[in-house]
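FORM 7B: Structural annotation worksheet

SECTION A. Query
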Amino acid sequence: MSSAIKAQLVILASGGGSNADKICSYFHGHPSISVGVIITNNLSAGVTHIAAKHNIDCHTVLKKNWVDESFVSPILEKHHITHIILAGFLLLIPQWLIKAYPDRIINIHPALLPKYGGKGMYGHHVHEAVKQSGDHVSGITIHVVDEHYDNGDILFQHEVPLQPDDTAEMIASRVLTAEHYYYPRVIEKWVMNEPFRP
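SECTION B. Predicted structure
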């Protein structure tokens, strides 16, 4: 990608926004990529404070309005969005958005897909399931988004070793550390059509 034309990211988030915070920090001053806007579906989401911290425009679009592209498309067009980043966004991405941004929407999942994926499998629900399973490893999966939850082509996975006495909270903390490190770096290479080499 030419450094003369910046890729513009939108971050979609429903919660506290710790991944959004890391992404915004990573791309601050980047020569080729910038975060143009953050959109949440949650009026009380902490990510609104992350947007303010980074001086990034933030919009709230409630769940009922995502089915109608007239609520979201003008925001994306105003900010010349080229790529969509899901960072703890709990809504299923509507068909119209997938068609408008084919292979340009990615998500991070706090487990090694295809295990512990699908509707309802997010946040602590995932880590509780991993704990109950007795698995010796968890991790993160970064994947392209399609019309199904946690189903698109996998771009990157990273394993996080577990200990027998780990609680779900300890698993969550360790996995989140991996998310914070790898997600911005994988985004960077994905946007620039370069291979990611950890």
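SECTION C. Observations
The helical segments are 18-27, 47-53, 69-78, 95-100, 124-133, 168-191. The chain has two domains: 1-102, 108-192.

SECTION D. Sign-off
Analyst initials: ____
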